[in-house]
Amino acid sequence: MDGRAVKAILFDLDNTLIETSRAGGVAIQKASELLKTTLALDDTTIRNICDKFKLKLFHESFDPSAGRSIDEVRVGHWEESIQEAVGGSSSASLATQCYYLWKNSRLEVLSLSPEICSLLKELRSRYKLLLLTNGESKTQREKVEAVRCEGFFDAIVIGGEHAEQKPFPSIFTLCFNMLDVEAEDCVMVGDSLDTDIQGGFNAGVRATVWISSAGGAVPDGSVKPDYTIPTVLDLPHILAQLK
Question: How far is CA 150 from each of CA 91, 107, 144, rounded to the nearest angstrom?
């Protein structure tokens, strides 16, 4: 690395700036309670339904040209999960209730902590800041709106609104152009080795910073981040080293 000054920071959103996994856990619990009340099933079966939904969500491949909205697709995840776990035909009405309870509960729990708000405000006085998040447009825009983070960034880029998402270089090039900076001027910060860190590496950024809240080591075969910290609140220590 050369002595070039950092001009811009690219931030991931989910599990970097906001605790999406924790919010998802709260939302799943709410949906579990609804299922238990409505279907009078045992805890194991309820857990099986919820695990199936989470798996479908994890492996989701959304195609907007298919004619279904993301909400319709995810109602379908719940309907299929109930049907697979219980057998027979499942209630579309119950699946709809489960989905919107899960979705709205998750959005209600999501927030930018006061500490992270202060960090972003302080960093924006010295750097250009851009939010770069993968995911379907409506879902990610709803999160951005729910946590009211627009004012902290010079630009917000949602992967699902473009031809390619992280880790492809094209979306990083778009970000660099929006900020009028070069790759070597930027730091990429995120919790995913596969998308954030690999993407930053592919794009040739000055440094990559991996948020590893669990404190785990980098798995064999994964891209190696330049820096690893347990929370984004430790980022100023890294930036001080890059001056």
Answer: 38, 16, 7
**What pLDDT is attached to residue 1?**
46
Name which of 35, 108, 141 is nearest 78 in CA terms.
35
Q: What is the dihedral of CA 143, 103, 111, 33, to 10 degrees?
A: -170
Question: Is 133 in contact with 140 (CB distance < 8 Å)?
Answer: yes
Q: How do residues 28-68 score in pLDDT, each as one tens digit?
A: 999 999 999 999 899 999 999 999 999 999 999 898 889 99
Query: Hey, what long-range contacts does 186-189 have (CB within 8 A, 24 or more apart)?
Result: 186/6, 186/7, 186/8, 186/9, 186/10, 187/6, 187/8, 187/9, 187/10, 187/238, 187/239, 187/242, 188/10, 188/132, 189/9, 189/10, 189/11, 189/12, 189/16, 189/232, 189/235
Give the separation between CA 177 and CA 47, rounded to whole angstroms: 46
Longest dimension (CA), the chain: 65
| E strand or H helix that includes residue 133 | strand 128-133
Sequence-separated (6 or more) residues with CB below 8 Å from residue 217: none
Q: In the 3-class helix/strand/coil scheme, how is 40-86 assigned residue by residue?
A: CCCHHHHHHHHHHHHHHHHCCCCCHHHCCCHHHHHHHHHHHHHHHHH
| 3-state secondary structure at position 162 | coil
| Token pair 């009211």 in the structure block, residue | 148
d(CA 182, CA 165): 19
